[in-house]
Amino acid sequence: MKKFIFLILISFLYSQELKISFVDMERILKEYEGIKESKEELNRLVKEWEEELLNKKKFIDSLKNLYEKERPSLSDEAKIKREREIKMKEEEYKRFLEEIWGKDGKLKEATKRLVEPHVAKVQKTIEKIAKDMGYDLVIDISKDVILYSSQKVDITDLVLEELNREYKGISGTGVLRKLKVGVFPFYEKGEAIRASGFGKILRNALRNGLSKYAALEIKGEGEIISAMQRRGLDETKIEISHVKQMILELVLDYAVFGKIEMEGREIKIYADLIDSQGNIIESYVDSSPDEQNPLIEAGNRIAQKIIERLKK
């Protein structure tokens, strides 16, 4: 590469028409708000997946420990049943591992969805600015040894300014911004649903589903939980009146809130989309067997309906 640049510079000596500029890609990838926020979202997803994987491992270990403890008193039929259950959970653990971290897993898909569009945007912005300023060649100064370059031909600041201005929604015709949406913990009705952990699984599914729509900014869960704690609230106490107060406090455009309960082996989900004035503008009802994956699918269905409503 250095030899290539050297040849270009030699060519420049013989052709005064060639205009060269420089850009620091390493700095752009660090300071471009779009990539920074996408990486934060990706890290949040990875943290959730790691937590879910750890919970699955703990559950398998608890099944094994309980089985070893009770094994002497179990019948042969009961032993076979327990061993099958453990094997099934171990296979589920392996499937989840492959589903997330496999060759074409969710991590790869999320990286492609969240980060790659911004990288492509960086490339297009560099090309646009270079063409507008009449440059024939742009060299990435962060990857090659450049002994000297004038600030006059370094377009890094211009590229960052253009990228971040567009990402924040500032244009010549006014200010456009992402809609801020808060996904609140649903009211968990009954001991069975509270002990299951299904409420958090549903909430994560809704957050992940809504984050696929680029026009939305999903409020950090930590801020929502902090706002609840200041009011002495949790999943057993939260009501829509509390959510309306927190919409104002957190400066949200919309909130998603509802109720989740168990009816036999079925999970019932009741969700509301609430606007900044505290009005319920649309309600959704869905259900799922009392299993994790079907519940995630139900959460994704609701998220997609919300996105369709917000696009109108």
TrEMBL record:
Record's GO cellular component terms: cytosol
Family: Belongs to the Skp family.
Tree of life domain: Bacteria
GO molecular function: unfolded protein binding
Biological processes per GO annotation: protein stabilization
SUPFAM superfamilies documented for this protein: OmpH-like
Residues forming coiled coils: 25-99
Keyword set includes Signal: yes
InterPro entries: Chaperone_Skp, Skp_dom_sf
Protein keywords: Coiled coil, Signal
Pfam families: OmpH (PF03938)
Species whose genome carries this gene: candidate division WOR-3 bacterium
Protein name according to UniProt: OmpH family outer membrane protein
